[in-house]
Amino acid sequence: MVLLNALLVGSLAALASALPHAAVKRQISQLRHSYDFIIAGGGTTGLTVADRLTEAFPEKSVLLVEYGEIGYAAGIFDPPQTVWGESRASASSFNFQSLPNPDVKNKTALVFAGKVVGGSSAVNGMFFDRGSRFDYDAWTQAGSPEFDSSEDKWNWNGIFPYFKKSVTFTEPSADVAQKYGYTWNMSAFGGSTPIYSSLPPFLWADHPIARDTWKDMGIRVANECAGGDKEGLCWVPISQHPVTARRSHAGLGHYAAVNDTRPNYDLLVKHQVTRVLYPNGTTSGPPLVEIRSLDDDHLFNVTTKAEVIISAGALHTPAILQRSGIGPASFLSTAGIPVVLDLPGVGSNLQDHSGPGVSWNYTKPNNFSPLPSDMLNPIFAADAAAGFDETPARGPYTLAMSNSAIYISLPNITIDYMKIINRIYRMVDDGSAASYLPADYNSDPTLIAGYKHQLSIIADLLKNPKAPSIESPFATGTSVRAFLLHPLSRGTVRLNLENHLLQPILDYRTASNPVDFDIHLAHVKYLRRMIGTDTMQKYGTLEVGPGPSVQSDEALINYVKDNMTFSFMHPCCTAAMMPREKGGVVGPDLKVHGADGLMVVDMSIMPLLPSSHLSATAYAVGEKAADMIIKQWSKPFNGHELRATLRPA
Predict the structure, then answer these.
(1) Quick one: signal sequence residues (predicted)?
(2) Does residue 613 carry a catalytic annotation?
(3) CA separation (Å) from 529 to 218, 322, 419, 526, 558?
(4) Domains along the chain?
(5) pLDDT, tens digit, for every residue of 424-462?
(6) Which one of the listed residues 241, 254, 523, 570 is annotated catalytic?
(7) What is the pTM of this model?
């Protein structure tokens, strides 16, 4: 029945082919004269909020401004690709190269972010997991005690209903579930939103090798990891339609699926929100919104009477705020921007998942089939392409990057976990933690106070035997990666001083806090245990990386530096939901401290990274934020009805 209902909704590909719609605007002359809400950014959270506001307030208008275009978003592995896992450059992505990381041999991070309607949900790896309950409880701790009395709670109990609301999960068929051993618990789901997740009807033949190996290591096999309990071996849904196997993303579920019935919903593409303006001071909002046409560089201002919501992502939201004169006063002065509001946390607190890998070779014959190499066989590849177009879809093209992973806590990784945790507590107590921060942090005591508060929370998380420290996903092949889920190092996002309208400068500062190396070291040692298991030895497995000759801690750390992935494309936390006196940018109501009528709703508001990829959390944040905004504005607008107007900049 669930599959039938999903089919009745229609193919995501059909929705995509129906675009663009008349509601899509591409120039100023197409805009109406009155907007009640303006949203900067048509990504995962921005589109979620726009959908809910236009539904709740049919008499109120919403303008959503998106840098990119609108169009079909291919899955991570769709025809005509024949090489599974191959990275593809895309005009629908922003490509960032970070500054060199001096603590990791001056190597740089490569980071992608969505530049299309749908944002990163339209270009990501489609891995659709949620964090542990302890991650979101840590968000509440980050705001304590200052936020304790707020009615807006961001702990697990406060956000879990929005995880459920934000996605429609479809159970696999009984045959598929039995074939692959899939397990799930529908109590973790229950939404009816046209954002879909499912477990694919195909796995590569060597997929069970890693799962059996992890079972050999004594890892708990979890029935369901989306309900808040996430320590163990997990099945992970992917963000695709259960019938067509096409990518499910916010541009489809929160725009294409609804815009025919939303005359109050305008989407302006190929335009950049450059800044917000407070002509009469930050207590007299909402601000004007300055917008630039990417076609002719024309600037114009739009006013509104309700809220301006910045939802441009962890890398572009701080850029909009900094161009607006909202950010660290010292940096703004260097950039030649008048300081409107001194908020040192804007563009600070940058975090991302990173980590090295462990690899091996099989020396004994095996009969794994099919494998990705079979896609090089024209007959197999043709059948795979034909299967993708069947209803329901079948075969290799129903896969994304992975849908199985382990999430293990530090106490279950190393018996020396308290040595690592006590080192964190000591650097908090003796004040040395500040020495590992960016130089401009040291001129601001609020950033140092916030960082020390975060480290204490992370130490408590790492001590918890139910809170994951490592993620290691697997789909096929002879390697696994070790994701550091709770990094201690902090980077920055700053405007490009040569041209403020260009992409901002990322300083990742990976492993600048040396405890990150302690944790990476523990993770690599843990994953190396895979090689000696009965399952691996059945195939004569030999370790390739780090390799048998790499044994000392010093040699292993050097291996980590040489084999680090600096970004798993999960940048966050650059407009953190923390008290202003601890370097925070927004409160639990997501309103910018000291800026009337201005909100941030995207992954920049997280104070700490969760133990997950970010897409599912982005949807949940958008759903919760929308409910908060709807509650606030459900009563009549205060004062007389002001018409929002267009003004030349």
Answers:
(1) 1-18
(2) yes
(3) 11, 47, 21, 6, 19
(4) 2-65+128-183+248-348+572-648 (3.50.50.60), 99-107+200-237+352-368+397-562 (3.30.560.10)
(5) 999 999 999 999 999 988 889 999 999 999 999 999 999
(6) 570
(7) 0.95
